Amino acid sequence: MADVADRIAQRSMAKRGNNYANEVRRLLDAGLEVMRQCGTTARPRVSDIVAAAGLSNEAFYWHFPSKDALVVAILEDGAERLRSYLAHQMAKESTPERQVRRWVQGVLSQAVDEDIASTTFAVLWNAGSGGDGLASGHSSINEPLATLLREPLAALGSADPGLDASLACHAVIGTLSDHLRRGTRPTRAETDHVVAFCLGAPAAR
Question: How does DSSP classify residue 112?
């Protein structure tokens, strides 16, 4: 009987876990959409987000201790999506130089699409950073993206690919942050310059 009870309990926990994951996804998506709609003119309340998600305040606080915690989770979710996109783009290239170029272009492209740029900036504004959160090196954003640069930079001769990847990431994310804050787009010449800077990192020491 104990085995049966254990199996039933495990099934119940699995179902509950799936329900919780679904609720979290709904809150993340709703939070992103509400912040996009509000832009930088007003910070939405938890009640606005749960209404958009079709959930209750109780459900929200079961998963997140505060709205700030939700904003951080949205940043992490966005960084993971961007990391997956960059990895896919880099996989198309056969040389480390072109992989680095793809990475830079992919990051800076976040400032090219008006909807993506405005939504990203709205989330950062809700985080209280006004766009500076990107350049300040928020670990939930920078670390997953910098990891992708380690292998190509090592192949280019970097003595410390981890450090070089981190420095390159700060430079490129900082450039993106500037464009989001100003509402501008990187030019091809600027992108080429940033690529050259990143490719020069392994040879700098």
Answer: T
